[in-house]
Amino acid sequence: MSDPVNGAERSLGQLVASATAEMSALVHDEIALAKAEIRQDVKRGAMGGAAGGAAAMVLLFSLPMLSFALAYGIQAWSHWHISVCFLLSFAANVLLAGLLGLVAYAKFKKVKKPEKSINSAKQTAAILQNAKPHPRPERAVLPGTVQDKAAVVGRSSA
Q1: Chain centroid to CA 6: how far?
Q2: Cα–Cα dist 49/62, whole Å
Q3: Residue 28: is its pLDDT beyond 90?
Q4: What mean pLDDT value characterizes the chain?
Q5: What is the DSSP string of 87-129?
Q6: What is the DSSP letter of 143?
């Protein structure tokens, strides 16, 4: 029996199985790296989305209630015309929504693309482009046989 540790004495099947296992491990490692990088950015994006959603909710739900309360409060305090008081109330709500929108923008700006995964995938693609398959010997195929039909299908799908 041959020693499986010695690469020169391994059979073709063992070499193919080894290469397949190593490629599978490489792909799994790259997927794990991408997941780890993206998980962090998804959390940041979720926080930005939550802040943006909160800004929209505050603006939506506070406008009717807070606008009336603020406008009548300003009018009672200053004795200005009620329309001016409603405009000041609206401006205060827009200012609050703008501040929450800035928080959302700051969170979204921190989201970055997964640089390590992209670089790793590019390196793997560059290595695989340089790999050349072992040429297969041509076999004589009789016309009309199963091998002939398979060869035609293989050529048409390439």
Answers
A1: 42
A2: 19
A3: no
A4: 79
A5: HHHHHHHHHHHHHHHHHHHHHHHT----HHHHHHHHHHHHHHH
A6: T
